[in-house]
Amino acid sequence: MNNSFLLEIAANSAGSALAAQAGGAGRVELFGNQEEGGTTPSYGVLALVRERLRIPLFVLIRPRGGDFLYEEFELEAMRRDVRICRELGCDGIVIGALDADGEVNTASCRELISEAGSMSVTFHRAFDVVRDQEQALKDVISLGCQRVLTSGARASALEGADTIAALVRQAGNRLSVVAGAGVNADNLAELIERTGAREFHASATTTQRSKMRWQSAALRGLQADYACSDVERIRRMVQLLRQEPARSLSL
Questions:
Q1: CATH number of the domain that 27 lies in?
Q2: What is the pLDDT of residue 212?
Q3: How far apart are alpha carbons 225 and 199 in whole angstroms?
Q4: What is the extent of the structural domain holding 149?
């Protein structure tokens, strides 16, 4: 049995992606517009991160915030974004599309996967708002996705740990169930024990204070502090994951 674990960092910027690499993370999921739950990053950010990252780079393909029911023009934008990722040499994409009844839109997903070529595919947390996760997992597996990101349909992975464990059992070795949402160094050991997951998804962010000496009192929000992944938080989680196989073997 493979005793290794992997930490994927949800990187909301180039700075976060580089922090993920410096902290020893195994993979980056790059996105923009964190305030709306993440959308596809700009071409400039994507190209720069691809040039500077040595660890695998996955890219969120999502044209807007809100639900996961997409119009044809939105799907066309997504297909074009997937093509750009492929041309830039990205390692994977992170996708998800649902129909109006809360089921996986397999036809739309197949189009995106076809455009992806040899890139790896993760089905994102659209999975957490489906009508039936057991059936949705069957659909995601049938699409050929390599992994699914989930909190077990709860606000955090810790709250959804029992559901994640059931999904891990259902998936077997057909795909990897990645536990995400609220994952940090304080709950990582418990999540490993309770879920059986081998891959974990975390942002590891801290507030970066603005370095502006001048700030407008009337429009302070335009010069606000911002969130960025923190190297030390990432390093701590990576260390915990590296210790876990040895601890398990000694039991």
A1: 3.20.20.380
A2: 83
A3: 30
A4: 6-209+222-250
